[in-house]
Amino acid sequence: MTGERRDAVSRPARKGIVLAGGYGSRLFPLTFGVSKQLMPIYDKPLIYYPIATQIMAGVREILFITTPEDRAAFQRLLGDGSQWGMAFSYAVQDHPRGLADAYRIGRSFLNGAPSVLILGDNIFFGHGLQALLDEAAGQPGATVFASMVSDPSRFGVVEIDAAQRPVTIEEKPVAPRSRWAITGLYFMDGRACDIADEVEPSARGEIEIVSVLQRYLDENSLSVERLHRGFAWLDAGTHESLHQAGEFVKTLQNRQGLLVSSPEELAYRHGLISLDGLAELADRQKQSSYGAALADLVAHEQGNG
């Protein structure tokens, strides 16, 4: 396994929110008894992948928003985050009220800080992803990540001009103006909670994230980072996509011998835990192939020390 350990990057002290609520109805009957974000994507729970993205984005404090029924299970799995050099908090969303509801629930947690919101079933991977996250972390206002899709009518869509600036944003348009879908990753400044409070619910009774983004667009303070070829954006919300995501991770890890979106590895790479701390985490999981992969990483790092 390879990879450089990163020095601390100077950037705004952003806090993270992982929205892991909802009831995963597209995955019934699998989700009758367990949250979809706790289901496996090959060798690790789905929730590990957005946590990995948050670590890469420079986040060190995360609020997990879950259903009341699932909160205890998330806490049992993730604890207080100290094992990865982080701080985890938990809140509940008793009823799905839209993505932007996360800013209302997370107001006291954020306390005016800029934030990174990611959906609990979104997976991001690709060479150069770290650079895009670093770029977004330094932008004022709000930043969204957009990916080219073949069926844009199923997504929020952003139209981008020749200067790579957003022109329009629409939620599931009948006649899309572009094929750039807005992914489930949002960088916001400290005004996000106030803006979410001012947004009127949509016809379906939800606080739409697109409405919040529209405010930033109207102020000319919305940026777009595009995920070009070579990036993978996976929304593991259906039986097929859940299986595809697992196969994707399995193929990459088995062929390259590199872990994909491992919070333990990234916590080490970003200086949140020591090599000894990583070794302890590997030993705790030594009976699994995931623990063995972490042990291989430790051995590699010790050999290069």
Automatic annotation (TrEMBL):
The keyword Coiled coil does not apply. InterPro entries: G1P_thy_trans_s, NTP_transferase_dom, Nucleotide-diphossugar_trans. Residues 15-249 form the Nucleotidyl transferase domain. Pfam families: NTP_transferase. Its cofactor is Mg(2+). It comes from the Bacteria. Keywords: Magnesium, Metal-binding, Nucleotidyltransferase, Transferase. Its EC number is 2.7.7.24. It catalyses: dTTP + alpha-D-glucose 1-phosphate + H(+) = dTDP-alpha-D-glucose + diphosphate. GO terms for molecular function: glucose-1-phosphate thymidylyltransferase activity; metal ion binding. Belongs to the glucose-1-phosphate thymidylyltransferase family. Catalyzes the formation of dTDP-glucose, from dTTP and glucose 1-phosphate, as well as its pyrophosphorolysis. This is Glucose-1-phosphate thymidylyltransferase. It comes from Oceaniradius stylonematis.
